[in-house]
């Protein structure tokens, strides 16, 4: 991997809460700060494309994301995305040939102590370097194909679909 292209869409990983979980906004992308603090040994660029909770991502947003990724020269792409519609977006990105694309996010904001953000990002960085071209989801220490995973909202984790 010569360079990792990171595209951010918002989601819980970048949320800033004010008084409680009902009052928040999507802040600056956290992944660049996290990778810098960890002292990673690879080059990366961050393209912040939208700042939305994934429940508010539209078909037009997904097409913009698809077109942006397709236009990048990098073959390895990591996408930070909200968890509620991550699978839907991954299926749209599957139309992009010859790239390894891994989507990840967090169930708790990166700014929170004990957030799963750093772990999920680390899993995604490892996966994007090792997997064959295609689209994958990295959550909860697992790598999933989009058609074989779902978010279990009640348990607040990703699991096998079906």
Please tally the helical runs, counting DSSP H or I stretches of 4 or more residues.
4
Number of separate structural domains: 1
Radius of gyration: 14 Å
CATH superfamily: L-asparaginase, N-terminal domain
Widest sheet: strand order?
4-1-5-6-7-8
The dominant shape is globular
Distance between the termini: 34 Å
Counting DSSP E segments of at least 2 residues, the number of strands comes to 10
Could you tell me the CATH topology label: Rossmann fold
Instruction: Name the beta content range.
Output: 25-35%
- Helix/sheet category: alpha/beta
Describe the fold and architecture.
This protein has 162 residues and is of the alpha/beta class. The protein has a single domain, classed as 3-Layer(aba) Sandwich (Rossmann fold). 27% of the residues lie in helices and 31% in strands. The chain is built from four helices and ten strands, in the order βββαβαβαβαββββ. A six-stranded mixed sheet has the order 4-1-5-6-7-8, sandwiched between helices.
């Amino acid at each position: 991997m010569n360079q990792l292209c990171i595209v951010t869409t918002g989601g819980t990983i970048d949320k800033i809460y004010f008084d409680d979980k009902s009052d928040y906004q999507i802040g600056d992308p956290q992944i660049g700060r996290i990778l810098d603090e960890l002292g990673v040994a690879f080059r990366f660029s961050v393209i912040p494309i939208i700042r939305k909770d994934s429940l508010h991502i539209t078909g037009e947003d997904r097409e913009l994301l698809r077109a942006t990724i397709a236009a990048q020269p990098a073959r390895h792409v990591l996408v930070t995305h909200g968890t509620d519609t991550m699978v839907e977006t991954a299926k749209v990105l599957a139309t992009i040939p010859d790239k390894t694309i891994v989507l990840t996010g967090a169930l708790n904001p990166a700014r929170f102590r004990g957030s799963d953000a750093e772990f999920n990002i680390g899993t995604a960085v490892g996966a994007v370097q090792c997997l064959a071209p295609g689209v994958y989801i990295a959550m909860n220490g697992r790598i999933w194909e989009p058609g074989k995973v779902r978010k279990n909202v009640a348990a607040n984790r990703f699991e096998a679909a079906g």
